């Protein structure tokens, strides 16, 4: 039917409401079809359009949806959407939009179209009969990492700075000084505030300018794209979604692209993502099957296709989409798109001449930009303490102002005091409301005493953290020459937190171990094969030939043996790089052609290199065929049909290949826990025994299985996988379900064993951390036996450690409730002798415990109790963990690692936690912990990018915590306490002075002194102290880890220490004020009106008194810092004595010159006149000595009567001794000899405490002769009792 008249639209709508799905509807194809006369041409009235939309909305779901699946019937869509340029295009698009909207509203089917987008490749409209072309708006390709613009910098920066409570407080004080009559000038508050705000704004503005500069360089780089079949060059920022881009070798992808074709014949390209995740290995990406043959600009420009994909997501490793490629056929070809088809912005093209791709995400929607978002802000314990102290001082300030206000009105209750003869009030002042006057006076006192809040402390702390962070990056001892990497500081806000760590959560693979895999052996049908050692393509010295342990299999098992070797050669995602010049040549072990195996997994490379020693060599993947070289030097070709990729949930991967003879195989390899349940045939018991033996020796094990497929089976698998791959919604879930159905009924072939060697000095580092009182937990995805063996090797579990198991295997025999209470009884029986302060000494005479828990058991612990009590077993589990010296968590998923960290972090003790790992699976726990440290390892830099700090090796953690962390905490805690102390000294005399001036709000100090006290006179010495102080030497801290305990639990910022510093400031202020007061107590008036002291004949006045107090105060607080300094350099001397000299010179110039810009100069000649009197000098020296005396006496008495470990070390250093034997015996017993450690895990009074670790012990046998009574193999040579 054709709608050719406005009246006919109504009939058309009515027909739509009653038609059957088999009927079709015609819309006008051109303007001429609408009508031949002028009245009818283009007469598509709003009434007609609305009628059509209303009728379609009523029947869309039943007319145009195929059943209940939610899929459009293509004949209906083509009928509704004829693609022709006409006036009816508007109606056509509205119809389709209405149909889609109603379908979405009425059908909760498979596809969630709201969360997807459609991209038109090359901005080309789909061909006639396809979907309507509806242009969409997307952002351009500009990257904006900057925070400010030229126009919003000042208001936005000021808003952010005044959100800080101290800055906002001083702003209020400054405004009060402007509004009411206050005793001090607004300059005294405004200038320090302006200084702090300006310094911070300059710092933040400079950092943002650098970001603007980097953004402009990135946005203006040239990009090649195709326009009308020709190659055009334009700036990156002008790219739009849908543009087809050409990228050449070694160029960076300008946006997120779908890979269409490449110069390589097989449609692949190699990419490095070092700038995204730090992985330098080459990753292989695959072009769309139907477009990989388009190699020229003309071919690509003629492509008709649309892409449907998800909206931008930050996950770098996940992508879901599909492409519809239109050709001459009626229906388009639909292909799934995944992460292997996506080229990410920031990645670099390698070993490929050029590629073509279509832009799908641009600018701030690219995955790289979405990962710019900052992590949640972490706050250190010192910062929290500082804010609490600030609140206390704010309460003190309010109390002072309130007391003075009340006392003022008590003092003025007598008439002659309220209105003396020399200060008569005006009539308006007498009639002023009493409450208003009291409020004004209260605010004036607040302004007078507001300097007790140290505004400059915040900017000093920021400078200290920022500058102090460079000491880590400059540390040459933490530089790794093998990798060329040094430590990184991603945030300087947590420097002092490194000195407060109580729990360390560490990954195993790549963190404690090298992640440098070496193929050790394989077991096929019970027969063990041990090739000579091959590691990353390098033949280790002294290795030759093939060493086969056990007898070779019989002729009947020969087929299974070769099938196992073929499985290892085929079941992987390795790429072969033949170019000798790229990344350096590496000769294959057989001396053949030069080749390098490239894979994101070191395990895969180790397996392929290992099986190469057993006679089978993987050659390459070419044109969809995998080629291997067998023992007879014959090349075998297998067509690669499907890859079932590895994931951390399934813990296995599979490939489906087809041999030249037509046989179809599915080869599967994975963890034993994921393979054995899916096996129906094979020598399971023999292989399981070998796997468990290898795991106990600390080897990483994988099982290999296979099954033959018939063509019918493969067709079913293809259908199942295709349905899951093209799904836009829940694709991962559907793929997982498909994999579960495919990977079953397997035949077990054998198992492999790969060794991951322990990192250098990992054991020494863990031992030192435990002596420092830090509990170390290992969180790993490995199986229990492998992880436990590694824990013994790195001395986490030691001689005499009793292992407690909370594992799935034990929970099958007992209930969770019974197991937990049994473990609790065991550990609490010894809890009296196992506190945090003594078990970490690791004495062999104490019984300590090690807990092993797996992921499944942890899930049960975290669940609510079944008895409905509302609680769970967390507290009981935590109580057990507190009494264990070490905890091993195995079979952990990434999210479970974070749950463990959060569980400890939020426990009632609120300990400071640190997480360290090297892979993407460690990011969640790194972000969860108080301090996150990434290891710059072989699994990429996801961990390093998301961490607060990054180190090249695990061993560097020892110095980072025990040296740098210790120093950082000592320095900043002294800085915070010192700032509050010197401000108490500064403002308490002002409070006392009010009792002697009738509470008239008269200032004791000159305006210049009020302004410059915290900015100039006392700021630099404490800043230099907080950067350079070393209360003990670096070698001492490294040699005596137990000194770390002296500063644990925020020891230097506890309330006791805070109150001591505050009372010391009050005492010093009393000495300053009353010492000067009693000196000038008796005064007389001379004939010329001057006030002089009767005993010293010194000219005396208000400003002389205040200047004397201020001078004593500046010298006292500066010399107090000098007394606390243990590490003197020429910089300390210059700053401390230079600050005192600067104060004297400034005072002489300020009072010795008539400054023309001052309307009055009350300090003229005051300082010079004061110093001209001998008694003033004597008073200054005497008062400074009396002020410092209590602190000196306290330190001397404490050192003699109750010395801490640190003070003992300091005393030892003063006496010139190297170390204190008594301290070593008390706090950190001597480390056992290497032989004692080696013999420890399996010998404790002749009784094994863990299954025999013979292989592990042999592998880690220490050098040198065995001790008396033992053989070189660890056996007792004499009789045992």
From TrEMBL:
Record: active site: 507 (4-aspartylphosphate intermediate)
Protein keywords? ATP-binding, Cell membrane, Endoplasmic reticulum, Endosome, Lipid transport, Magnesium, Membrane, Metal-binding, Nucleotide-binding, Phosphoprotein, Translocase, Transmembrane, Transmembrane helix, Transport
Q: Name one GO molecular function term.
A: ATP binding
Q: Which residues form the P-type ATPase A domain?
A: 220-284
Task: Cite the InterPro entries for this sequence.
Answer: ATPase_P-typ_cyto_dom_N, ATPase_P-typ_P_site, ATPase_P-typ_TM_dom_sf, ATPase_P-typ_transduc_dom_A_sf, ATPase_P-type_domA, HAD-like_sf, HAD_sf, P-type_ATPase_IV
Q: Which Gene3D superfamilies match?
A: Calcium-transporting ATPase, cytoplasmic domain N, Calcium-transporting ATPase, cytoplasmic transduction domain A, HAD superfamily/HAD-like
CDD domains on file: P-type_ATPase_APLT_Dnf-like
Residue ranges occupied by any P-type ATPase C-terminal domain in the UniProt entry:
944-1204
Where in or outside the cell is it found? Cell membrane; Early endosome; Endoplasmic reticulum membrane; Membrane
Which amino acid positions bind Mg(2+), per UniProt? 507, 509, 918, 922
Question: Which GO terms of the cellular component aspect does the record hold?
Answer: early endosome; endoplasmic reticulum membrane; plasma membrane; recycling endosome
> Signal peptide: which range, if any?
none
Sites binding ATP sit at: 507-509, 604, 646, 669, 700, 780-782, 891, 897, 921-922
**Which cofactor does the UniProt annotation name?**
Mg(2+)
Q: What are the residue boundaries of the P-type ATPase N-terminal domain, all occurrences included?
A: 136-189
**Topology versus the membrane, per the UniProt entry?**
Multi-pass membrane protein
Q: Which residues cross the membrane?
A: 162-180, 388-411, 442-461, 1008-1028, 1058-1080, 1100-1122, 1134-1158, 1164-1189
Q: Which reaction does it catalyse?
A: a 1,2-diacyl-sn-glycero-3-phosphoethanolamine(out) + ATP + H2O = a 1,2-diacyl-sn-glycero-3-phosphoethanolamine(in) + ADP + phosphate + H(+); a 1,2-diacyl-sn-glycero-3-phospho-L-serine(out) + ATP + H2O = a 1,2-diacyl-sn-glycero-3-phospho-L-serine(in) + ADP + phosphate + H(+); ATP + H2O + phospholipidSide 1 = ADP + phosphate + phospholipidSide 2
Biological process annotations from GO: phospholipid translocation; positive regulation of myotube differentiation
Q: Where is this region: Disordered?
A: 1251-1281
EC number annotated for this UniProt entry: 7.6.2.1
The record ties this protein, via NCBIfam families, to:
ATPase-Plipid (TIGR01652), ATPase_P-type (TIGR01494)
**Which family would the database say this protein is a member of?**
Belongs to the cation transport ATPase (P-type) (TC 3.A.3) family. Type IV subfamily.
Assembly: Component of a P4-ATPase flippase complex which consists of a catalytic alpha subunit ATP11A and an accessory beta subunit TMEM30A.
Annotated PANTHER family = PHOSPHOLIPID-TRANSPORTING ATPASE IH (PTHR24092:SF33), PROBABLE PHOSPHOLIPID-TRANSPORTING ATPASE (PTHR24092)
Output this protein's name.
Phospholipid-transporting ATPase
Q: Which organism is it from?
A: Mustela putorius furo (European domestic ferret)
Q: Which gene encodes it?
A: ATP11A
